[in-house]
Design brief:
heterodimer; A: 16-stranded antiparallel barrel; two-stranded antiparallel sheet; 43% strand; B: mainly alpha; Cytochrome Bc1 Complex, Chain D, domain 2; 11 helices; 2 strands
Chain lengths: 465, 310
Amino acid sequence: MRLWRQSFARHKFATPFLTAALVLTFAVVSCSQPASALPAFARKYGLRCSACHESWPMLNYFGQKFKDNGYQLMNDRDAPIWQNPSYWPVTFRMVGLWHRVSTGKVAVDTGTGEQRITSTGFDISGLDILTGGTLEKNFTFLLVPSSDNTGAFHMESVSARLDNLFGSPWLNIKLGKFELDNLHSEKRVLSLTANGGIYQLYHFIPVGDGNIFGQIGDNQLGVELMGHSADDRTRYSAALLSSSDGQPGLIYGANSYSGFFAASRAFDVGKLGVDRIGAYAMIGQAPTSWTTSGGPNSPIGGSGVGNKSFHREGFVGQFYFGQHFDLQVVTQHGWDNAWFGQGYGDFIDGVAIGNNTPGTTLPPGAQAPTWNGVLIEPHYVYSPQLIFVGRYETIRMSRQATPGTASNLGNISTYTIGYRYNPFMTSRAGFAWHNEYNWLHQDGTSPSGNNINTSELLLGFDFDF
Amino acid sequence: MRTSLLKGSLWVTAAAVLTFANVSSAQNTEYQEQQWMGMQSHVGKLTGHAGDAKGDYRRYCVGCHGELGDGNGENFPWLDPKPRDFTLGVFKCRSTPTGTLPTDEDLFNTIARGLVTSNMPQWNTFTSQQRADLVAFVKHFSARFQTEKPGEPIQIPPEPPVTPERVKAGQEVYNRVQCWKCHGVEGRGNGPSASTLTDDQSRPIAPYNFHDEIRFKCGTTDQDLYKIFMTGLDGTPMPSWSDNIKPDEAWDLVFYLRSLQPMKSKEKEFAKQLGLKPVNPNAPAAQPPAAEPTPTPTPPPPPAPPGSQP
């Protein structure tokens, strides 16, 4: 499921002509999300979903602390020796759904060459198999094989963690493929539609840009040092990552790495609850030059050199206003090296259109593309069983890679509204009646350079056990 | 137009769900509304209100402690030890004498600290106000809090400096009052009575193993340890020793028990220097101080109707 999202992100912006068709295809063919709501943990500890989740899969502060402790409650019952031998730490999650997807300005062979395509029908999501927990106290793991809705599997997440090194919660080391320490977690998103089920801010790539490696919403391969105070009010993390966008097999750069850093602090604000503010940054390098074999468009995997820089940084806020209302905010400023802006970068997947071989020069006036974005997500938690969700995201290009390009090309605006109702709440399984509407607008990316509007209405049964 | 209709249907469905949720929620809380929702707690400058904790209780606590606070939540069958039955008003972790109600601060601290060797986690992610509200909510389940005042917290004398002599004296207290009968001669929770112990609901209960943990059920500090055996753990076989151990001896016992724990400590170092061996129950009994009462522990009086859980 993650694979198609990455694929979507790459092709969407590299070849605007295909955008509408891809949106439609992906929306209709598949709709789900890899999330970490684990009734297996609830069964292990005897806690209801609501103890850790504001509404599953989104974590509350207690759930965040549980995760930060390496999926341990730290009450001496964490080690497997305390579990019934028949306990199996596995959760399955899937969604059966009906949805209506409508995409404007799709390239067609008739009429004006562009047409709105609307489809409705029943569908299923991919399957997430989530297993995690303790190998021994303070030795923990997470393993998430995940499939798309045709049953094609990939490894969404694989990591082992050494927790509380030297008896300190400030030292935890994780190695493998894992979600970056995004406070507002895309893996725990409360929406399911194709465009609403991801955060555009976490995957944005300017039109024509070849850099796929800065997508902070994708699980990444690397090692993470993370720490937090005993009550989790203060947290930090620093990760060293391969610049591969989480793809295994060393198929990209010969020697390219990225770093992801995050820190946050939460404050008690009396009756309002706990509010948190933080900041994050991803700073990395990725290849633009590839050795080829069998033709100029046949790069050899792992041969990427000619590293160029990129970075994304922003602030995160989690603001609670009493027991029922909260507002999550993420901002981002993005910057890609001018070489990426001109379409160099991921040549392996064909996202990049050029190979930065010796002697290659940038066109006159080429500059580093930059953009700014914000995500605002309010929640109204009527009760642990019913949550209303809204989200507004906007991304605005502040500098195009090529002078003369329309200043708004590639700008995105999207909003999502919906609710999730859990008719029961236990520590054994989860079930949500999910209803959502998403609308996405992107400037200038139809085949003829018009704006594209896409919408999706979804009703589904989201369940895990 | 069609999209508008569909979007409209989303809101109509949402309204229906909301109505349904409202009805079921009202049914769930009917009992609580009839109880003492006006209950308050007072912790420092904070005033907790039971009514403000309904949501949090339902979100975090109800799976184990149950809608009625009787410890009969959906996880009751699988938990060991069983969740606390709040209706009895009997609590293990107190600063007050055995048989009395705990202070609000005792409950406040228990919520944040959690209870090791049980499934009760540390709820230290709550704000102080949330915890104060939950204390009031916990109290509202029991009639005892309507009619009784909390006990007066016991006086804990200042902690003396730890010395080898005090560690050794502590071992003698451990032997004299026969802690070893339950906790074992080495403090491993394997004394001759260990397998026969039950709580006040006749459920098997295991004595604490000092070699396993650096935390105690009711705290981590020397003062917490002092309180545990001087106030007893109500609802369990662990009695209050306040009638049998003098305050100064109590500190000796604290130091000896610390020497048994797995972490490095001055007490452990002294015990090693002294070459302390496990207590020998068959050795001639040390003479208790003059006018010392019998070493046989006196179980605490049952403070409430039967049925409390650890």
